[in-house]
Amino acid sequence: MGLSITPLPLSMTGAALRAAVLEAVVLAGHLLLYPTGLLEERPAPATTHTGPDDAVADPDATAEPAHPGQRPPVLLLHGFTDNRSVFVLLRRALGADGLRRVETYNYSPFTRDLRVTARHLARRIEELCERSGQDRVDLVGHSLGGLVARYYVQRLGGDARVRTLVTLGTPHTGTRVAPFMDAHPLVRQMRPESEVLTELRAPSPGCRTRCVAFWSEFDTLMAPTGTARIEHPDLDATNVQVTGIGHLALPVHPAVIAAVRRALDGPVTDATAPARTSSAPTAPTAPATGPTASTGTEGQSLAM
What we know:
alpha/beta
């Protein structure tokens, strides 16, 4: 019996090559920055407000409610074996207008259980709310960081605190890549049949967090690539397909960064309203010079 191979279209192979080259460039840059993110950042002190233009940092103060123009603080969570240095560009962009506090969270490199990390995250978020004077926060998680954040939202009551959860290349239904790494307990928890993912498939009625999941067909760490989509009947989820880039480029590509910022600036489901599934959401209007966005049964798409 012969073996037949269907060649990929030239346009697809060219796009894959460009994505691979970009991944190599991003990896090289990230390796240079990696040492700068090894230590946990010092959280910003509480900020008191007496008006929209007179925020004062006071380490001994109990934060007062933020002024009306202030957006919820954002906490960024890195992926497996990574650290906060991956968010240098994203953090700068999200905080550029001065209307939101943006912080990063380094979880321990010795973490062996995603659920333990999610409980530590819960404490960090309570502390962030206290310092910022806000009742809710936004979370952005890259890869495993998105799974930690989602576990907190669905299984630890985090939907009461998290307004919007954005995930970048997160294995929501599990990835089968690199089977030789199954010796690591965190990798086993990212497999489709793991106890953690079984818990996340359980019903989550009334979940108040809006979810936005970015995924790419050239994400080689997602096997299959569609695993980075959120498919859950109880979650208000928007899936955004990114074309032309890979896993490492998701948190640093300008088009993705702009789309993440729009997702956090956009309308949010009322926290008191029941959750809904959004498989065909209304796409935000893209700027003339930015990526194109379209809607359909598969959600939104970003063309690089």
